[in-house]
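**Paired protein data**
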Amino acid sequence: MRFRGSEDHPALAVAYELRVASPRVVAGEDLFLELALKNHGARAIELPDPESPLNWQPTFSVAGPGLDDRVTFDRLGIARGRPSRPLPDSAAILVSVPPGGAWRGRIHLGELARFGSPGRYVIRSRLAWGGMVIDADPVEVTVVPLRAVSAVVSLGATASDAPEIAAAWLHRDGDESAVFFAAFEPRNAPFTGMGRLGVTRLAATAPSAAGLVCPAAEQSLREDWFGWTAFCEGRTIVAAPTNGDPPARLDLDFTPDAVLSPAIQHPGHDLDLFVTGRDPAGGLLALVRFGDGDFAADAAGRVMWTLTIPFVAAGGAVAAQPGTGSRLGHVVLVEAARGRVHIHHALVDGRGPPRRFEALTIDDADALADAVPSLFAEPSGALHVALIVTAAGDRARCRLVDLHFAPRYEAASIEAITPIDLPYPAASARVGHCRREGGGRRRDWAIRSIDGAVHAASPSGVRTARPASDAPLCLLVLEHASYLLDPAPAGALTFSAL
């Protein structure tokens, strides 16, 4: 630390320090700079509040690997959108630091400077006040590229019925692996753009982490300041709260094949995960629950029930029944068997395993390993299911299949089958529903072919919506538009119109 002082402000009595929580961050991750003003003198001293957007002191600079990654700023200049001009000292917002005491705060550097390019960044700050000039020791941060291997959407509800949108993704770079969580909001009504509010590192994961899921909820997740993200590490289910609490872990007596999406978050914050697996007789379906209704202060996972089923599920999905506080719901399992795809549906009540399944069969079809069905539950108890299947032996010939299950197992039918022909075989697919404001539903889809390109619906049939990339396929369907989770210029992922 370098300093100059005056008789009124002896710099030797003041220490100005910078710190970051980690010297290594993933591109787009929230980066906070922690600040400390320490008074080693014998009397209190007043200094500009470094957190205040009304102050032009201290100043900060960031020097990154490229010419576009260099910036000098102060909080007032950022707030006004133009460089600050000198103001009288009386205009500053001050903090008083007592003798032997310290002021501590932090600023969100990611909101003030660009950290999108991988490489080394040096952060400096100078406090010039009342004839005193103090240069804090610089800190360095290395930004590594985001390598997202999977991503999922989380949806909550608000009093206005507008969706609360979030997403989680799993980053894996060699032995380094972590789960990140981001909240989003529309930039302009009606959902013509999407803005990202922040990217939080929730938990480090094992390199084997898979089966990432986020919750759907009828209630607001942001107003509670609490949500979940869950994933598997071998036989272990890990549930990471979004409020900063440590992850909860539960070891199962079988290795999960999948955690069905979405997870269901109850109004009391409990998290329900439906997990599939295998046993010698066929397959398994289990309900795992985390949390105790007290913001997971003592989060504990437990297996509520395990059911043996006569087939191995190739995939599946769940949905809560509207208007029941997530107490009732639907489970759909996909079975691929000798050129046919069987869709099994069951009602669940959260207390015990399903009492029965009903099934529909799609002939001359095969299931994609990475193609999650989309469920849309009606207040009446009816369920709409949409999924992408391929022709048996020809994965370039896909079909969008819409199915309907009436309330209380009264009837089941295939509503429509829409052919989708691709230039290359399909590798993965996503389908999504949303509830329309005036009633009814909207449905959309996206398919990634083996060349990496993403295909979507168009008035004339099929269009290529994205060129080849290795970004995870993650679809968000809203009333007026659909979105894919794409790499952002400043790092991380963000929703862009499909």
